[in-house]
Amino acid sequence: MKTVIEKISNDQKILNQNKIAAAGKIIQEGGLVAFPTETVYGLGADALNPEASRKIYEAKGRPSDNPLIVHISRMEDLTAIVSHVPRQAVKLAQRFWPGPLTMIFKKAKQVPLQTTGGLDTVAVRMPDHPVALALIQAGGGYIAAPSANVSGRPSPTLAEHVAQDMEGRIPMILDGGAVGIGIESTIVDVSGDIPMILRPGFITLEMMWEVIGEVRLDPGLAEDDPSVRPKAPGMKYKHYAPKAELILIHGAQEKVQQKINDLTQEAEGSGKTAGVIGTDESCGCYCHGIVKSIGARSDEATVARHLYAILREFDQQEVDIIYSESFSSSGIGQAIMNRMLKAAGHQIIEA
Ligand code: AMP
Ligand code: MG
Q1: Which residues contact 282 (CB under 8 A, 6 or more apart)?
Q2: What is the pLDDT of residues 76-97, one digit of tens each?
Q3: Whose CA is nearest to atom 15 of ligand 1?
C-alpha cells in the first residue's frame, strides 16, 4: 500500500479543508489515517466500525486485548458512546477538555468490543489540536486512535516517526509538525466510585484533585513495585522501548554524572557504543559516548517533549547501551519517569 504524507498547517484559520475531507473520507470508508494531536501522533479509524478497529491492531501489531482510546470533538457526542456520565467526569471535562486527559466510562452498546479490547468500558478523550478536531468531525465524530507506532516502539512525536513505523501499512499520514506535549494522555477511570489514575500524564493528580477532590493513583503504577499489575491493560506490556538497553541512574546530580562517566568509559573499554541522556544543565559534564540533551531539568515539560525522539535517534545511531539521568517523581516528572522506567524495563541503579 502506498502511504501519502500530507503536510497540513496547525493554524485553525488556514486549515486545509480539502486535505481534511480526503482524510475524513478514508476514515468513513473504514481505513486508517495517522494524525497529529497535542500529546503524540495517533493512528485513527472509525471507532464504531469493528473492521476498522481491527485494522489498527493489525497495522500496529498490537495485542487485541489492549483497548483503544475513542477521540471526540464535541462534548455532546459523549453521551452516544457511554452509558452514564458521572458528575466528576463533567467537572473534569469542563476543566481539561479539549486536552491531554482520557476518561474511562461504562460503554454504550454501539461501541464495538473490538474497539474496547473486549471490555464493557470505553476510554474517551477530546484532543486539543485543530487538525485532530477537524479530522474527527470529517470522519464521522468518533475516531479510535492509539499512538501511531508499531507496538512496543516509542510513540511518534513527529510525522517522520510515524513514517518510520507505518510507511506501506496505512494510506495516509497528516503531517502537522512536532507535537506539543510529547507523552501520552493521563488516563483516569471515572467508572467506579472514586476516580483512579491508570496512567500518569501532563494532567497530574494534583491538578485533578483541585477540581474534584478525591482521586487515587492505581497501586499498579508504584515505581518500586513492578509485581503489582496495573489496571490499564496496555500498561502491562513492555512499551516505549528503544532497541538498545536503557539504564537509568538515580541519585544526587553530581554523583549521577560521575557514575554515568564511569559506566560509559567502561562500556567503551569493552568495545560498546554508549549513549548518554543528560540535560541542558548537565551535558557539558559528560566525557564519553554519544551525549544528548533531553531538555532542561528546570523545565520538565521540555524533557517530556523530547523523550521519544531521543530514543528513536539512539536507535538510528545503533548504540548498544544508553545511560540516562532520572527525573523527579512529582508533576509531569511522574509521567516522564513512568515512561522511562518502562523503556528501561525497570533497570534503575543508585549512583
Ligand atoms: P495508547 O492509545 O497506545 O496510548 O494506549 C491506550 C491506553 O489506554 C492503553 O494503556 C489501554 O490499556 C488504556 N485503555 C484504553 N481503554 C481502556 C479501558 N476501557 N480500561 C482501561 N484502560 C484502557
Ligand atoms: Mg501507545
Answers
A1: 253, 257, 297, 325
A2: 999 999 999 999 999 999 999 9
A3: 67
